[in-house]
């Protein structure tokens, strides 16, 4: 299970998984965290004690991504066998199994009203599929990208931003699938994206070791962040909109100003290996970071900045 370490001055650590953790996400109310990975399970646990609450065994293969529904009642989780499971967060009961993808489903995201899900496929179908969350009715498929890594619904409008193994991010109408703009600021695969909480900007990061912030309406680059020394695999915007945290193969968690790109904190001691997922608590005071078999909870003292 987890280490009984309450979040305080230093980082707490959850060690309930038996293999590498690829995804971590706070619940909308901040009372629970869900994490999943190579042990084929999703764990729900208490961030104040690192005590496990529930284990979901509904995946036959490695869990790649997960997302809480906006009301916190459900979780959508995806795996390497092409399945997306929608299930109750309190009981683990499966509501629906979506089978539209062929193989790796690297990304899942809920619409802001909690009725639809976007899921992105890697090897096999190279597409984002949009479908109804509770009955799996397929609405449309958005193609044109090779090996989709991220597909995120805008928090305030019916738009989706998706990134891939190519060097671009596409933004499109979530209702119709109609293409709106393409961001071409990167020079390699784009592994991670994050919408600003107000939906006006997008942060993207990837193989070129850079993170960019750009205008979601016209694709204009607003800020370029160059402090990482290796591939960036994860990026997350604080819910208050003020900060970004990014991490990846250099094992260093960094926090920086979302307006200026100024580095505020570089934390190299939390993890010894690649960091694969990041998530802020809803009140922007704690960062969860996943690497190997553990998740660290790192208190963020916003008042210092």
TrEMBL record:
CDD domains per UniProt: WD40 (cd00200)
Gene3D superfamilies named in the record: YVTN repeat-like/Quinoprotein amine dehydrogenase
Taxonomic superkingdom: Bacteria
WD repeats by residue range: 14-55, 56-97, 183-224, 225-266, 268-305
Keywords: Repeat, WD repeat
Species, as recorded: Dictyobacter halimunensis
Xref: SUPFAM superfamilies: WD40 repeat-like
Keyword Hydrolase applies: no
Record keyword Repeat present: yes
The name this protein goes by in its record: Anaphase-promoting complex subunit 4 WD40 domain-containing protein
Pfam families: WD40
């Amino acid at each position: 299970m987890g280490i009984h370490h309450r979040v305080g001055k230093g980082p707490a650590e959850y060690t309930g998984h038996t293999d590498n953790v690829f995804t971590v996400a706070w619940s909308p109310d901040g009372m629970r965290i869900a994490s999943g990975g190579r042990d084929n399970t999703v764990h729900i646990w208490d961030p104040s004690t690192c005590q496990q609450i529930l284990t979901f065994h509904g995946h036959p293969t490695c869990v790649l991504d997960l997302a809480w529904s906006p009301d916190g009642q459900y979780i959508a989780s995806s795996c390497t066998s092409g399945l997306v499971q929608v299930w109750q967060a309190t009981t683990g009961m499966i509501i629906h199994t979506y089978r539209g993808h062929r193989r790796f489903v690297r990304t899942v995201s809920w619409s802001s009203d909690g009725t639809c899900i976007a899921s992105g496929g890697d090897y096999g179908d190279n597409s984002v599929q949009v479908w109804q969350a509770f009955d799996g009715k397929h609405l449309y498929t958005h193609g044109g990208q090779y090996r989709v890594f991220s597909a995120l619904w805008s928090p305030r409008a019916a738009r989706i931003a998706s990134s891939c193994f190519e060097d671009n991010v596409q933004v499109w109408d979530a209702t119709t699938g109609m293409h709106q703009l393409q961001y071409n600021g990167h020079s390699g695969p784009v592994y991670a994206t994050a919408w600003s909480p107000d939906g006006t900007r997008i942060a993207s990061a990837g193989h070129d070791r850079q993170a960019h912030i750009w205008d979601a309406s016209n694709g204009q680059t607003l800020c370029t962040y160059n402090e990482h020394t290796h591939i960036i695999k994860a990026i997350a915007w604080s819910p208050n909109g003020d900060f970004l945290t990014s991490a990846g193969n250099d094992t260093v968690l960094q926090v920086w100003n979302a307006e200026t790109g100024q580095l505020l904190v570089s934390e190299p001691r939390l993890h010894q290996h690649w960091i694969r997922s990041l998530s802020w608590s809803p009140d922007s005071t704690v960062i969860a970071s996943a690497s190997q078999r553990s998740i660290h909870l790192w208190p963020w003292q916003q008042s210092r900045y």
